[in-house]
Amino acid sequence: MLAKRIIPCLDVKAGRNVRGVKFSADRDAGDPVELALRYDHDGADELVFYDITASAEDRAIVRDLVGKVSEQVFIPFTVGGGIRTFEDIRTLLKSGSDKVSINSAAVTNPDLIRQGAESFGSQCIVGAIDALRRPAAEGQLPSWEVYINGGRKPTGRDALEWVAELVDRGVGELVINSIDADGTHDGYDLELTRAVAERVRVPVVASGGCGNPEHIYQVLTEGQASAALAASIFHFGEYTIPQVKEYLKARGVVVRE
What we know:
This protein has helices at 32-42, 63-72, 86-94, 104-108, 111-120, 159-169, 190-199, 213-221, 232-235, 241-250, and strands at 5-13, 16-19, 27-30, 47-51, 77-80, 99-102, 125-133, 144-148, 153-158, 173-178, 204-207, 227-230. By secondary structure, it is α/β, with parallel strands linked by helices. It has a single domain (5-250), classed as Aldolase class I (TIM Barrel). α1 packs parallel to α2. The two termini are 14 Å apart. The model has no long low-confidence stretch (mean pLDDT 89).
């Protein structure tokens, strides 16, 4: 059985790690380089770095900061935010990232996924989706809409249809972020994560809403996720990665030592 992964997430704005509720990004959460070093030492399975305003501000990702973080970690390192071109992908992989996470540009230029996967391998290309639950009439199945530009702009695309297309185009992994749950500490959207996991054949990373180790346990089991992304519970010292892994192991979840 494949081990489940625990992945801290650095949401970076103006050179600082920030957190908020539903993309508000209104609370300083520390220096991203220092946090990266701590998580590497604590046994995180991977690390994700998002420049959360790069797409909305129509600018390039902060590559110098990416380079500083990559120098501190020896675990797989994924970078996203503001990736628009094939050259952006090449530059970030050369700068030290192991994977690139593509969200808005995948919607506006879907062929970018195929180009990246064919040139660098699907294992380097992560499809990221910010999804907002649509109102559902009684008896209807739940559905979610894809948003871009840091959760600011609706696209009209159905999230489950979009994840299937991303996989067909070549992504090797998906990060599914629930806008409804983001930063709330109320738990992941288990319905969303499970629906995506049942739809595709690639690993699914759950994001948005983690408040405690039980939420991580739920999304890795009920939600069928391959990995859980979490931010605030680690940044502010509510829990450590070893504590979460011990909690999961005690409940029969296979995790890496």
